[in-house]
Structures
1.
Amino acid sequence: MKGLSNKANAKLLDPWGRMRRGLLARLWPQQCFVCGGRAGLTVVCQACEDMLPWHDSPSCPVCALPVPDGQTCGRCLKRPPHFDATLAAFEYEHPVREMIMALKFGAAFTVSDMLISALLAVASEADDLSADIIVPMPLHRQRMAERGFNQSMELARGVGRALDLPVRAQLLVRDADTRHQAGMPLRQRIKNVRGAFRCVESIAGKRVLVIDDVMTSGATLNELARTLKLAGAAQVSNLVVARTLRSK
């Protein structure tokens, strides 16, 4: 079972930031997001952290869907996606699902540090993860205006700071305000996001790490990777907070 490594947490905040957080934790201890008990410095207490749905079963290294032998799955062999690898911290289940929704729609930034630490813990265990730049999944300007922030950008900033990698938030533009894809069959999802993104400059030879909150069918991440590859990217890897266990 994975855990939120001390190393990942230590990288996340500078010394003054950790000192301030420690003082706040003593004066105003956080409530655990899951059980409501005292959690101290973190948003999830130790008991609840031990029960989080970590994505640690053998899985396809390309799309991160569970496979018994941990080898590339038949679907990715038959029709390789444009991205080269996917790492996921959690399975998209309770209580991670609620944490992501709280961040995405409620601007609950108290959970962002915990999710960033989870991403860093997963990245630290990867044998061949390498990147030159980080790209967050972009939002269309209308959705950005409605929410006021991009949750993938918040995650990307923390990962980039910890890994000392530049975050290229303006590299991609989401030209199409695509419909929500919940409930759509895969073929319709692919059609829905086709041509949704535009890369504003060449990234010839760059290895790109894409940060997103949830990977469901992979259609949106695949279209993003296609756009990056057309702009010259040598490699595109996904680092996501949660992966659904079944492609829909």
Note: The chain has one domain: 52-243.
2.
Amino acid sequence: MGSTIAVSGTAPVWPDGSVDPDPAVQARRCWEIMLAALEELGGSVDDVVRTRQYVVDPADGDAVGAVHGEIFGEVRPASTMVVVAALLDPRWKVEMELDAVLDD
């Protein structure tokens, strides 16, 4: 069995603290942050086995899901998208998590 990596509570915040209002841009920013963390630990998008996407507005689901498809292509991790009442910062339209398993 390989090493398990969990990246959780990832918000769409830029280094200067700003948040783009577009849900697709927010989704890309979350994936950028999470995949950079995964790469720092020796993993890659191919190692992702599960993702969770939390959205505030169900109308953003298609845009957020499309970004997931762009990122993962043929990888096809188990994935859940959940509509929540709110996130910690009202500017956030999405928050995400991933789990990855690296071979020994």
Note: Strands lie at 3-10, 48-55, 78-83, 94-102.
3.
Amino acid sequence: GSFFRLCERDVSSSLRLTRNTDLKRGNGLCTKPQESPKAPSDSYSHRVPLHKPTEWERKILVWSGRFKKEEEIPEAVSFEMLDTAKNKIRIKVSYLMIALTLAGCVVMIAEGKKAIKRQESLTSVNLEKKAHLREEAATKAKAE
């Protein structure tokens, strides 16, 4: 019993100390009051690092639609602008590859249908090649 009384005294004295240091108590927890954000000082200026684009990066900036001509591109651009342009180009290239794959599939389907109309199949083509090779082997054997 006396132990709990001592703990209560310590807790109550520590609460008095925290009240004096402007700590707010909410939901059983002590939290510091929110401080107002400090205004940026004049001596510190936040600058985005810039990058001088290469010729290839200049073409990417034009192809992505960021600039109309290479002459409009400034001497230095931000990395964020360059990354955005590269991502746009990646998306365009992936769409192009999807379109080419679909076009190739359509062409192969059309060629397959034409081959069926000619009564042509892989099996018949392979049998013809083997028969031709046998004939050549037989003529070489007779010639020797």
Note: The chain has two domains: 2-31, 50-143.
4.
Amino acid sequence: MSGNDENAARGVPDGPFLEVACDESGSDGENLTGGNTDVFAHASVRLSVAASAASVQEIRDRIRSPAEEYKANHLLREKHRAVLEWLLAPAGPIHGHARVHLVEKAFFVVDRTVALLLDDDPAAAVTLFRAGRRTFGEEGWRDFLTAANQLLRVRNDGRPDVPVDLFFATVDALRRAHPGAAGAEVLDRLADHRPRAVAYRARLLDGPILVPVLNPLLPSIVRTAAHWSATGRRVRLVHDRQNMLTPERIAWIEETARRDGIGLGGLRLVHSRLDPRVQLADFLAGIARKIASDELNGRGDPALTALLRPYVDPASVWGDARSRSLLAAPLPGADPSACVAG
């Protein structure tokens, strides 16, 4: 079946724009190291409203729950395993028409910290992250992640210098305890750039920050637009309503896309209950976050991980080498275990 024939079968109209529906799962704001989830997932679905409504109704008919609004946890219950497998399977309703961008939150914190202090050095971020727990121990590594999160987050309940002092005290303690160990060289480099951290915290006092460094939603939306527009057709995104998506931040997303040569033709917000396409994206985001988190923590279900893999963006921001190799195909020409930071 040709691409156009397949689109027709799925009810996707041809036109100057691809319209893609999006939603996320696992948002904890800027609290990436102490929140409720360790994975953020941004899902997108390209199907017509009619085809999406039929799929949502099929899910309801198969699950037969009295709930007014279905969520991903309905499909993740063991008694509904067959429905979940049907949804993700190659013959299922969204295969080939959906994508998930994953973010491993702990790695995202390390990557953004290194970017701030070392002029965006992805290799250093990967080195530090993969050595962290093994070199510094569970407690030491947790202390580093917590201090880095506090350094970067916009909210500050105390003096502006407190997060800076805490971060560099933590870095110095780890350097003294583990001289010459794997990852310590990156800490040595971070320790030399306290003025950058001080300048960053000072900027936060000047006024509201348009794009918080630690929130993965905005860059994930840009990445979603890049994926769907890669064929050369411009994309319009339909996104579930989200407090983070203010008019100013939507304008930032659109401007960033233009600057990067991404064919984004606009982004509008809807309520998920009013758009079945967004409901499917909501299902996929929640499902992907749970499957990816289980795999990250060594309790993955091989069958579900394999079913999810075709949906996962190879450019996902993921630091753990083992789980990454199972969750996503490598980027063309890249090391299969490599991370992509965005």
Note: Residues 1-9 have pLDDT under 50 and may be disordered.
